[in-house]
Design a protein that fits this description.
Strand content: 15-25%
Number of domains: 2
Shape: elongated
Oligomer: single chain
Distance between the termini: 52 Å
Helix content: 25-40%
Number of strands: 3
Order of helices and strands: EHHEEHH
Structural class: alpha+beta
Number of helices: 4
Length: 89
């Protein structure tokens, strides 16, 4: 883990971001005391799981904003949007 002071981090932010992309963790210090840690985002194959739903036909995605399921689930009672609208009254 790399340890760096706030001023150094601000001055060389691009460098430290490249290190994070490589998998390095950064401990940020203020007056020699660690106040925060920056860690790389861990992609836990969430993207591949979502894409497998598309491949299996359970979801549709054409690269834009998701549109929902071809097979919506029927529910009893009010929808979330109806509850929110009621709550706003």
């Amino acid at each position: 883990m790399i340890t760096v002071g706030i001023k150094e981090l601000k001055n060389r932010l691009s460098y430290y971001l490249r290190e994070i992309k490589k998998g390095e963790k950064i401990a940020i210090t203020e007056r020699e005391k660690v106040i925060a840690t920056i860690i790389p985002v861990e992609r836990v194959d969430v993207d591949s799981k979502l894409l497998s739903l598309v491949k299996e036909g359970f979801a549709v995605w054409k690269g834009g904003k998701p549109v929902g399921s071809r097979h919506p689930v029927k529910i009893k009672g009010k929808t979330v949007s109806e509850i929110v609208i009621e709550d706003r009254r």
